[in-house]
TrEMBL record:
PROSITE patterns: ADH_ZINC. It holds the Pfam family ADH_N. GO terms for biological process: protein tetramerization; small molecule metabolic process. PANTHER family: L-THREONINE 3-DEHYDROGENASE. Residues 8-355 form the Enoyl reductase (ER) domain. Keywords: Metal-binding, Oxidoreductase, Zinc. InterPro entries: ADH-like_C, ADH-like_N, ADH_Zn_CS, ER, GroES-like_sf, NAD(P)-bd_dom_sf, Zn_alcohol_dh. Its cofactor is Zn(2+). GO terms for molecular function: adenyl nucleotide binding; anion binding; oxidoreductase activity, acting on the CH-OH group of donors, NAD or NADP as acceptor; zinc ion binding. Belongs to the zinc-containing alcohol dehydrogenase family. This is (R,R)-butanediol dehydrogenase / meso-butanediol dehydrogenase / diacetyl reductase. Gene3D superfamilies: Medium-chain alcohol dehydrogenases, catalytic domain, NAD(P)-binding Rossmann-like Domain. The keyword Oxidoreductase applies.
Length: 357
């Protein structure tokens, strides 16, 4: 079986491995499509971060390097373990990749996506989606309806990140929204706010192709922060700021812009991953009663199918447009050159490349 194994920074090898043994609560999936994510690129350029550090094993899964990558994937179930009854051979499925301990403080408080020992299929487990087959717990599998192509199931994970962020923000129908950054997650947020009834959706993004995609999926105004002052334009056209802003980059300029383009009493929800400092003065929150929160992934553990099913429903109803996000389809053997290296090119026009083994 062919799999893309991560050994360390800039060392991703497509190699042949033995078929994984199937546990009684697990299912074997023939992978149809797996999306390359910013997280994968981050591991490739600067990891191990979410993958196990050199010489260590993950406390929950015992996984150690090399690990197969690919946490956004879909496929067809080809074998089920002896204790599995909720899914059957032949079913089309997508996978919620989060594995949680079920025992820590946050798991017992129902906040499984904050689990202290969280692991992910395709980052810190023995299986991943950049592979001909994956073996995953049946509890992590979410069925796909017959009406949508199986490969679209690979978009359910990033779309669920967008949905979760919108739910975390408390955005309501009729609100005005600004989204900073139109990568896969920014685009997913645009789709989710449009489906949720946002009236005005401003998107600030330097890459032209990404602005075009944002317009296809619901942005009403797109801005190039290299050419326009996004904050000025948004504040002028909304009488002082949007109701809700989303930061989907993780750098100081977009963090600052997200705050400055939000109205008094408004909400800023951050999804951009970063360890960098971003400037903030208390009165940008205090005297204007703005609220900032973070959004991490999606519901998982016993609620693993909750937001994933919502995303699947939106795909089925046509409110989510997966095709607008898919900018490339490649073979597993070409994953490094035509996938990772291409996405890391600053001039790349890609948003989501699907690996189809
Ligand atoms: Zn991802
Ligand atoms: Zn836990």
């Amino acid at each position: 079986m062919r799999v893309a194994n991560y050994y360390g920074p800039e060392d991703l090898r497509v190699e042949s491995v033995d078929e994984a043994v199937l546990g009684s609560n697990e299912v074997r999936i023939d992978v149809v499509a797996a999306g390359i994510c910013g997280t994968d690129l981050h591991e490739y350029t600067g990891g191990p971060d979410l993958t196990p550090a050199e010489g260590t094993t993950h406390p929950l899964t015992n996984a150690s390097l090399p690990v197969p990558l690919g946490h956004e994937f879909s496929g067809t179930v080809v074998e089920v373990g002896s204790d599995v009854s909720e899914v059957a051979e032949g079913d089309a499925v997508t996978v919620n990749p989060a594995l949680v301990c079920g025992e820590c403080r946050y798991c017992s408080e129902g906040r499984h996506n904050l689990c202290e020992s969280v692991a992910n299929i395709g980052l810190s487990a023995r299986s991943g989606g950049f592979s001909e087959q994956a073996v995953v717990p049946a509890a992590n599998v979410v069925p796909l309806p017959a009406g949508i192509p199986v490969e679209y199931g690979a978009l359910v994970e990033p779309l669920s990140v967008g949905l979760h962020a919108v739910r975390r923000s408390g955005m309501q129908a009729g609100d005005s929204v600004a989204v900073f950054g139109a990568g896969p997650i920014g685009i997913s947020i645009v789709q989710a706010v449009a489906a949720g009834g946002a009236t005005e959706v401003f998107v600030s993004e330097p890459r032209r192709k990404r602005r075009e995609i944002a317009e296809m999926v619901g942005a009403t105004t797109t801005l190039d922060p290299m050419a326009d002052d996004s904050v000025d334009v948004i504040n002028a056209s909304t009488n002082g700021g949007v109701d809700v802003a989303f930061e989907a980059v993780g750098i100081e300029p977009t963090f600052r812009a997200a705050i400055e383009s939000t109205k008094r009493g408004g909400q800023i929800t951050c999804v951009g991953i970063s360890d960098d400092d971003v400037g903030l003065t208390p009165n940008e929150l205090v005297v204007v009663e703005r609220t900032i929160n973070g959004s991490n992934g999606y519901l998982s553990g016993p609620l693993a199918d909750r937001e994933f099913r919502m995303a699947v429903q939106y795909l089925e109803s046509g409110e989510f447009d997966p095709e607008a996000m898919i900018t490339g389809r490649i073979r597993l053997d070409d994953i490094v050159e035509d996938g990772f290296e291409d996405l890391l090119d600053p001039d790349s026009e890609h948003v989501k490349i699907l690996v189809e083994p």
